[in-house]
Amino acid sequence: MHHVSSTLIDRDDIADRVAQLGAAITARLGPVADGGDLVVVPVLTGSLLFVADLVRHLPLPFPI
To answer: Which helix (H) or strand (E) holds 13?
Structure first.
């Protein structure tokens, strides 16, 4: 079993950055995404959890 000896970026900092990304995406694509032009596609192994956190910050209609 592997033990983590130190934390590079703590979970609060990651959550804050994900919220910032969501706000930036909303600000930039808001008018475009209202027409259904935004599609979110998680493609990397393990990215679904990140995308799930990110889309919680997107008050836009879109398919995943």
So the answer is: helix 11-33
